[in-house]
Amino acid sequence: MSGLSVSGISYSYGSRVALDDVSFEVPPATFCALLGPNGAGKSTLFNLLTRLFSTSSGRIEIAGYNLNNDPRQALSHLGIVFQKPTLDLELSVRQNLRYFAALHGLSGAKADKRINLCLDQLNMLERAGEKARSLNGGHRRRAEIARALLPEPDVLLLDEPTVGLDTASRRGITDYVHDLAKEGTTVLWATHLTDEIRSDDHIVVLHQAKVRAVGSAESICGEVSLQDRFLQMTGATPL
Ligand SMILES: Nc1ncnc2c1ncn2[C@@H]1O[C@H](COP(=O)(O)OP(=O)(O)OP(=O)(O)O)[C@@H](O)[C@H]1O
């Protein structure tokens, strides 16, 4: 299966428990929001999914490959957009993508063809020659998403990808990634912003290291808005 499966994952920083027996599935071609307030454990989970961290507990499967037993296969099916920007600001957009393509064994005309396609899909082709430093935040994010899509990942992880972006950029990127899921990519999108979630999206609510709810946004909300439901579940009160 080309989805994502997380089963019984726990992780602690010393005595601080960041993830406590976390389990959920993201079916193939689904947009799943990992919804949690600050400190819920979202970034820790992403670090485990990308193998920056490891844990002996539980099991992670990416596109059907066990991350512990078969990390090369599992990671070759994974695309990632980290919370903190990771473009080399002194390189052009194209150079950033070429470097990344080479890491995935793509070079020459084949790499350029794929780079052009991915940049074009994100309306970034005409910016390809510009240094990353000269781009605004929204365009930098688009370039990072294009880069993550180069190896045609089955599963795409995005860790709070719209933080710091203006409304139009947020909307554009959120819509684009929803379309990607409709076209077949399995998406896990970490956020604390309920307005990025649609009623038919899958949601995993994470709070204080534990999964608090799993299901469609509609089924989790009931009669109330997602924002109110989220505030109820996380015990947060508006200032
Ligand atoms: N390096 C670390 N050392 C100790 N504790 C940490 C470390 N990194 C994170 N934590 C703690 O682990 C818990 C989960 O943090 P994490 O960054 O995964 O949450 P998050 O949901 O990504 O939050 P945010 O939305 O603020 O990025 C928090 O209590 C945090 O304080």
Automatic annotation (TrEMBL):
PANTHER family: ABC TRANSPORTER ATP-BINDING PROTEIN, ABC TRANSPORTER ATP-BINDING PROTEIN NATA
Origin organism lineage: Bacteria, Pseudomonadati, Pseudomonadota, Alphaproteobacteria, Rhodobacterales
Superkingdom field: Bacteria
ABC transporter domain mapped to chain residues: 4-233
Name of this chain's protein: ATP-binding cassette domain-containing protein
One Pfam family named in its UniProt record: ABC_tran
Protein family: Belongs to the ABC transporter superfamily.
Keyword terms, alphabetized: ATP-binding, Nodulation, Nucleotide-binding, Transport
UniProt keyword annotation of Transport present: yes
GO molecular function: ATP binding; ATP hydrolysis activity
Organism: Roseobacter ponti
